[in-house]
Design a protein that fits this description.
The chain is an alpha/beta fold and 382 residues long. The protein has two domains: 35-208, P-loop containing nucleotide triphosphate hydrolases (Rossmann fold, 3-Layer(aba) Sandwich); 211-270 and 283-340, Beta-Lactamase (2-Layer Sandwich). Helices cover 39% and strands 23% of the residues. The protein has helices at residues 23-26, 46-55, 102-107, 123-139, 157-177, 196-207, 212-226, 251-272, 321-356, 360-364, and strands at 2-8, 16-17, 35-40, 72-76, 82-88, 109-117, 144-150, 185-189, 228-235, 240-244, 287-291, 296-302, 307-314, 371-377. The strands form three sheets. Strands 2, 3, 4, 5, 6, 7 and 8 form a seven-stranded mixed sheet that branches. Bound molecules: guanosine-5'-triphosphate and magnesium ion. Magnesium ion binds at residues 46-47, 67-68, 88.
């Protein structure tokens, strides 16, 4: 089967991607990297989220985290596929403080995550949410606004649904009152004690990847030709999935795939790298196959040193593994093409820009309008 895809690159332009980077690009000024802001009231769980998702802190350890008293900038850089900065804010940030430079803070921001503690009274948080969003939107209307209704581990399912509905209703009403009817807020129920925080963060990061439709298309074609039930493209270190096929994501499959990555990394750490502890546990030879007792197979293949494809396959469809492996190589080749072309476009645009304009803020929000064509031939697994 032949596949042709054309993509208009746009929006949050200059995201860097680990493993598909130009040398000079990895060394660019960290302040020019797109950022994700974590805001919300004191003790709502911002620092815990950042530590658990990006620094492998265990949820229980977050009990000992101290309150944040200044903006902490964390560069998610060399260990991860999607390169950005996370800015963790202190709870009681005062927008009217003259030292609060909203142009600088919201200007290069890709997404703003507002964390609300669901175990606490949330009315004050809603007022703050409204203030924050209004302020940020005035500076940069392209920010994606994400609300994490957080700490839902301690509450019943009914309470979760009811508070999500109530928070959604009140927040959108407040925005309408402020004259911002068009502004879209996305809501996620999260907890650091299960996989929901990784799932929610995956969705936030995905919105910032201009190549997402292409990646999703490739995954759809890959799974339909290979007899695969579900496939996730994972950023290995953070366990964020940066794309999946169009079938709905159920939490259990996502958890299984996350756990598989942990198992593979743990085993590789113990048995893989012999005496040389400098060698990363995950490399371009990494692959793994786990048979579950419900006639399902989990199959992991590396895509590049930061990315892995994890597939859920019915055992009977795995009899022609050669076809799946061949299609995987096509898929990997296509992804490489997509990012290589993106880099080429970006390099061209950057050099034009450098000639014409030295404004770093403009470069940061640069959008790429070059179109990308990826041509791949998949085999049919029948
Ligand atoms: N039950 C539960 N507790 C959580 C969760 N996330 C964070 N916490 C707890 O919430 C408390 C506050 O967490 P922090 O991450 O320090 O909160 P913060 O928003 O960074 O607070 P400031 O820095 O003061 O603004 C800690 O005791 C965490 O263990 C969660 O998902 N569930
Ligand atoms: Mg904090």
């Amino acid at each position: 089967m032949s596949y042709q895809d054309e993509e208009q690159m746009g929006l949050v332009g200059s995201f860097g991607y680990g493993g598909f980077e130009l040398e000079n690009e990895t060394q660019r000024n960290p302040d020019q990297k797109p950022r994700i802001l974590l805001m919300g009231l004191r003790r709502s769980g911002k620092s815990s989220i950042q530590k658990v998702v990006f620094h492998k802190m265990s949820p229980n350890e977050t009990l000992f985290l101290e309150s944040t008293n200044k903006i902490i900038k964390d560069d998610i850089n060399n260990s991860s596929f999607v390169q950005f900065q996370i800015w963790d804010f202190p709870g009681q940030i005062d927008f009217f403080d003259p030292t609060f430079d909203s142009d600088l803070i919201f200007g290069g921001c890709g997404a703003l995550i507002f964390v609300i503690d669901a175990q606490d009274d949330y009315l004050e948080a809603l007022t703050k949410l409204n203030q924050t969003v209004t302020k940020a939107y005035k500076v940069n209307s392209r920010i994606k606004f994400e609300v994490f209704i957080h700490k839902v581990d301690g509450v019943s399912d009914d309470f979760k649904m009811e508070s999500q509905r109530d928070i959604h209703q009140r927040a959108t009403d407040d925005l309408a009152d402020s004259g911002l009817d068009n502004l879209v807020l996305s809501f996620h129920l999260t907890s650091i004690y299960d996989h929901s925080i990784f799932e929610a963060f995956s969705k936030v990061v995905q919105k910032l990847i201009p190549q997402l439709p292409t990646l999703e298309n490739l995954l759809n074609i890959f799974i339909s030709n290979s007899g695969i039930e579900k496939a996730f493209l994972f950023d290995v270190v953070s366990k964020i999935y940066i794309a999946t096929d169009c079938s709905p994501v159920d939490m259990q499959s996502y958890e299984l795939c996350c756990d598989m990555i942990d198992v593979v990394i743990d085993l590789s750490c113990i048995y893989g790298s012999k005496d040389n502890t400098d060698v990363a546990a995950f490399d371009n030879q990494s692959s793994s196959l786990i048979k579950l007792n419900n006639s399902t197979i989990l199959y992991l293949r590396e895509v590049n040193k930061f990315l892995a494809l994890v597939c859920i396959i019915r055992e009977e469809n795995f009899s022609r593994q050669g076809v799946i492996d061949y299609n995987f190589l096509c898929f990997r080749e296509a992804i490489t093409q997509v990012f290589k072309l993106r880099l080429k476009n970006q390099k061209m645009e950057n050099s034009e820009l450098l000639d014409n304009d030295n404004d770093s803020e403009y470069k940061n929000s640069l959008s790429l309008n070059g179109s990308v064509k990826a041509k791949v031939h998949f085999e049919q697994n029948e």
